[in-house]
From TrEMBL:
Lineage: Bacteria, Pseudomonadati, Pseudomonadota, Gammaproteobacteria, Chromatiales
Pfam family, one: Formyl_trans_N
The name this protein goes by in its record: Phosphoribosylglycinamide formyltransferase
Function: Catalyzes the transfer of a formyl group from 10-formyltetrahydrofolate to 5-phospho-ribosyl-glycinamide (GAR), producing 5-phospho-ribosyl-N-formylglycinamide (FGAR) and tetrahydrofolate.
A GO term for molecular function: phosphoribosylglycinamide formyltransferase activity
Top EC category: transferase
Site annotation Raises pKa of active site His: residues: D140
Residue stretches in coiled coil: none
Species whose genome carries this gene: Imhoffiella purpurea
Length: 217
């Protein structure tokens, strides 16, 4: 199950992984926006695409109750947040504790929330990246599973940095979903992530790959 609000590029990465034989099947895609292009991506591949707009709901609890009912109708083993632009209530998060993942465009715990690329540049960071984590009630604060780390170039702007990070998001998010589907990844009773039976003391790290010709882009 994948939840989106926008174009769905990480959803497409999941679809591509599924089509390559990954050990998971996307049961459905849900968006809170009817104009989200990710819905079209799902339809093109025969994946059920649902819209549950948040407009008209009196509060987050009411919306999340209906969202929970919609999700549970598909009985997914894993819920993936892929650009779902909603702050979820603690009750909703608790429902899927240990089986809900999120991808965030920063090296968490740095730069939680929005505008991560601009903030990283303004802070003078030399490295940036993306993180996959189990979802908890703390915004972008759940246990980390995997990160991709890249160097920030001297001439970098927020747009170019975002594009480079996004390419690595498309690598690490399907990896995490694959691990979970195989039973290799789980959230322990101690609230910490385990991979292949061993506690992840720090997130699994993917380093930036140099250009094939060994030269800078």
């Amino acid at each position: 199950m994948v939840l989106i609000s926008g174009s769905g590029s990480n959803l497409q990465a999941m679809i591509d992984a599924q089509n390559r034989g990954a050990p998971f099947r996307i049961a459905a895609v849900i968006s809170n926006r009817a104009d989200a292009f990710g819905l079209e991506r799902a339809r093109r591949h025969g994946i059920p695409a649902e819209v549950l707009s948040h407009a008209g709901y009196p509060d987050r609890d009411a919306y999340d109750a209906d969202l929970r009912a919609l999700i549970d109708g598909y009985a997914p083993g894993l819920v993936l947040l892929a650009g779902f632009m909603r702050i979820l209530t603690p009750g909703f998060v608790g429902r899927y504790q240990g089986r809900m993942l999120n991808i965030h465009p920063s090296l968490l715990p740095k730069f939680r929330g929005l505008h991560t690329h601009r903030r990283a540049l303004e802070a003078g960071e030399t490295e940036h990246g993306a993180s996959v984590h189990f979802v908890t009630a703390e915004l972008d604060g759940g246990p980390l599973v995997i990160q991709a780390r890249i160097s920030i170039r001297p001439d970098e702007d927020a747009e170019s940095l975002a594009a480079r990070v996004l390419g690595y998001e498309h690598i690490i998010y399907p990896m995490a979903a694959d691990w979970f589907a195989q039973g290799r990844l789980r959230l322990g009773e101690d609230g910490l992530p385990y991979l292949d039976g061993s506690r992840l003391e720090s997130p699994y790290l993917i380093e930036e790959q140099p250009p094939e010709n060994g030269e800078a882009d």
